[in-house]
Description:
Blueprint: H1 3-14, H2 18-102, H3 112-117
Amino acid sequence: MSVVQDLRTRAKHRGFTPWQLIQKIGRLEREADNRTCQLVAMATEIDELRAERNQLEQDFDKAAIDYAAALDDLRIARSETARTQEALTATKALLANATAVSDLPKHTGQGLQQRFENGPAIRLGASPMAVTDPGEVH
């Protein structure tokens, strides 16, 4: 059976003329083409969105790695700050001790000649209070 005969047979049963059937088939084909175009457009959009999602996931992974590295750098900086703070505290203590030593009262102002005018200088080993033998105690 040919296409025309098939169309005529269908037309008799539905009340369409062959020309009306051809027009209807053309409209259905155009609608099918439109739907096909819509499907292709939707598939393209889905692919673009999938690519964008993958790019965002990669960006997120890079950001997570950068964040972890920044946290590690912060931890290291905090430990270095603590060590520096301890060293600063020790240096301040040493400086305080050095300042305390430099604040000791100065010599009374007697010159070397004046000190020996009061009598000869005595060596500690020759002092009557010096003990040369550990067993001998005064």
